[in-house]
User: Which sequence fits this backbone?
């Protein structure tokens, strides 16, 4: 397994059903875990509790690259960059996959929305492979 992949974690936001009603989060978790990628989900990652989850996992020392599957980065990108910085990571070690606008809001079919969400998440994971702070 790639060293960078060992240090990458994925966090998925349910976005109060905006994402979880159209994207099968359990299937995404199962698929990523089968690839050896740790994945965590929370109802609202943008909440203080959601940010605490991310910070706590980073502070455990296992992860130095973070992929967040949530709404558009233009809405909470700055918040997540601040969260990553407070956790002790360079914000270049963060990628955000827009699962709300690019998957759940545009694909009425849950299978299609989930497949696209997985593709976006794997793309973001791949993008972090060679990133250095």
Assistant:
């Amino acid at each position: 397994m790639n060293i960078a992949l060992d240090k990458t974690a994925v966090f998925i936001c349910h976005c109060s059903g905006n994402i979880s009603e159209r994207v099968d989060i359990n299937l995404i978790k199962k698929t990523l875990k089968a690839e050896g990628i740790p994945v965590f989900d929370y109802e609202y990652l943008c909440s203080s509790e959601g940010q605490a989850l991310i910070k706590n996992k980073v502070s455990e020392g296992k992860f130095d690259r973070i992929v967040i599957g949530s709404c558009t980065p233009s809405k909470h990108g700055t918040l997540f960059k601040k969260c990553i910085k407070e956790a002790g990571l360079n914000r270049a070690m963060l990628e955000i996959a827009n699962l709300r606008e690019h998957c759940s809001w545009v694909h009425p079919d849950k299978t299609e929305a989930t497949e696209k969400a997985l593709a976006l998440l794997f793309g973001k994971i791949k993008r972090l492979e060679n990133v250095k702070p």
Remarks:
- The two ends are 21 Å apart (CA to CA).
- The chain has a mean pLDDT of 92.
- The longest strand covers residues 8-13.
- The chain has six helices and four strands.
